[in-house]
Amino acid sequence: MFANILEALTNALSPQTLLLLAFGTAAGIAIGAMPGLSVNMGIALLYPMTFTFKGVQGIIMLLGVYCGAIYGGSISAILLKTPGTPASAATVEDGYPMANEYRPVNLEDYNGPQLPPQPGRALGLSTFASMFGGIFSAVMLILLAPQLARVATSFSKPEYFALALFGISIISSVSSESVLKGVIGGFIGLFIATIGIDSMSGKMRFTFGNTYLIGGVSFIPILIGLFAFAQVLQSIEDEFQQKYSIQKPQKTIAKIDRVFPTAEDLRLVLPTILRSSIIGTFIGCVPGTGGDISSWISYNEAKRWAKDKRRFGHGDPRGICASESGNNSVSGGAMIPMLTLGIPGDGATAILMGALMVQGLQPGPLLFSKDTVRVYAIFIGFMLANILMGIFGFSLIRLFAKVIHVPNYILIPAIVLITFVGTYSYNHSMIDVYIMLGFGILGYFLKKFKFAPSAIILGIILGATAEQNFSGSLIMSGGDFSIFLTSPICAVFLVISLISVMSPLIGPIVRKILVRGTR
Hints:
mainly alpha, two-stranded antiparallel sheet, 519 residues, two-stranded antiparallel ribbon
């Protein structure tokens, strides 16, 4: 074991890996800081770069993008009152007032002494809380993932089918406000997963005589199209709307002062940060949740535990730290089921799971025994990503704040170029480019009609696993469906899957109550 850890350290700490990690983290922060871009888009955009690197170097770079983008969303949330990512929506509540408004020292005396805008203080608290939450979740990932993997090694085909079915069931949870739209998106993904040669029977399915489809539709152009090119089309539409809008958006940022929190601030916020990190890690472990849910729940709990609740919404440091530690700690939690069970915790980990599979790593319990060195390298890389995120945040925050002002006439062509080059570089096939364009247009209209692209991705990734293990289970039992009920583990996952499908019916109600309770 010590030899494996030493080899993993050597791989993760090589100069090239550290350089890629630094690039990924910085790019993630910049992408997260730009309103309209998302964590998923950032990962999808840089995904093709991983093909040129060996081992886990490319995966570690994507981990840097993942961690950096979640934190980067707080920059625009605090400075512009526009969350860069949905996970930073709760940060606006106290981050923007602290950074841009004069606030009374005593809330009962609005005519008394006034605190000036403190954007540096707000950004510093956000950076510290984000780094703490990320590192906390990384520690939990290292401690909990191997233990869960040991339990999961006893799984056979029925358990794997039930597990994959559970993963498919969370499609309804990542599908905005409509369960039906999520199911439709999931069915699209499941259909795409059936194209090509049936691994059990060897028969051709839905190939229509096209040799390209024999091996199935490539995952990479679908991913880039749905998350990156679709966002390009949306950005072009937004640009036209702003151009011909009577009221032009104003982007003014107060001068940034010192960014590192004071000792007094740290004493005030540490209990909140620790509590929110625990909440975020736990929520991240539950597939189908995400940073936006965690940030609001953490914010609500911080307000509930506070004696002086009236300060929330007026630039309270605890409000900023609760949201940011809550959403950043989700990342490590979401990777626990992804690595150990092969079930993505959210859309971002679904993309990361695809990246692992492209590199020959099959997420699941056997990953920890077959690829121990690379798993340890991923753990180390994830920890370093969160540390680098904090270092970049404190030292380069003024630079990242300027990213918000990058004009769209520069940004959009650059993203278009990356999507085309990245798609073509995977198989050197123009068919992949056409597929990317087609799914980009599809993704644009899916967003218009409130469909979640993540549902399609989950359907593609988990569809083949569910089908293979379902067929294999029936072969084992001679066609007896009771095999799925004789195993307690299998039965439990089937019940949880049913609960997961029903949860969105009451989820919006719970979320409205939580949001209303924070205001």
